[in-house]
Amino acid sequence: MKLNQNFITHTTGGQYYVVSTDSTAFKGIIRGNGTTGDIIELLKNDTTEDAIVDALFEKYDAPREKIAADVSTVLTKLRSVGAIDDD
Questions:
Q1: Mind listing the pLDDT tens digit for each residue in 33-64?
Q2: Do 14 and 33 touch, CB atoms closer than 8 A?
Q3: Which of 1, 12, 37, 55 sees the fewest Cβ atoms within 10 Å?
Q4: Would you say residue 87 has pLDDT above 80?
């Protein structure tokens, strides 16, 4: 899976934004925190959900199950607006 090229990202003031372009059915902005930003950054290259969980588990002092649940929530939201290409 990978971030759809028709979405752009921006970071400001500790907030992370995923913005749709004219080429998408979804017209809007998704805002998230630093953890969401980490997930988005990992999605800029082809990856898997397990690889994202592994990377965040290495970075954050949190239970793996909590990280996996958070990753799943963010990926579900991004998929719902077409921001992820699942190949």
A1: 999 999 999 999 999 999 999 999 999 999 99
A2: yes
A3: 12
A4: no
- Annotated domain spans of the chain: 2-81
* 3-state class (DSSP) for residue 48: coil
Using an 8 Å Cβ cutoff, are 52 and 39 in contact?
yes
The Cα-based distances of 75 to 13, 34, 46, 69 in angstroms read 23, 15, 14, 10
39 touches 71 (CB < 8 A): yes
Q: How many CB atoms lie within 10 A of CB 79?
A: 14
Q: What is the pLDDT of residue 23?
A: 82
